[in-house]
Design brief:
Distance between the termini: 32 Å
Largest sheet: 3 strands, mixed
Strand content: 15-25%
Strand order of the largest sheet: 1-2-3
Number of strands: 5
Shape: globular
Structural class: alpha+beta
Amino acid sequence: MPNRTLRDVIDGQSIVCAIAETSVRAAAVAMANAKVGAILVVDDKGLLSGLFTERDVLNRVVAKGLDPDKTLLSEVMSVNLQTATPDKLLDHALHMMFEGGFRHVPVVDNGRPVGMVSARNALGREICQFEEELKERDHIAEIL
């Protein structure tokens, strides 16, 4: 698992991006439609400028009584992000998440987002393999 590159992890992934002037509600709708827990915020040149997560909706918007229709991502997004390049190993991103106490690592190439590694999807292949092993174990148990 940790020997996979981030390029392998994000292969085929569709990333969800927005500009900083997007409302929190519009960003939340985009995240819900894409079934993702975070949206990458980019500038007019397509460079990564921030990150907005479902936790930000809860802690920075709802808990503070802000109006999601009037609050812009620029007001509540995380900036000065820790990022990784596609050639880094998955264990590097997982270590970053553990040490930094966050769940998402944007994968960038020359400052442009090319994917996102999350604590949830980082283990995708391993979870599928684990499920197959469980099915096999259950099948063997049925035979015995």
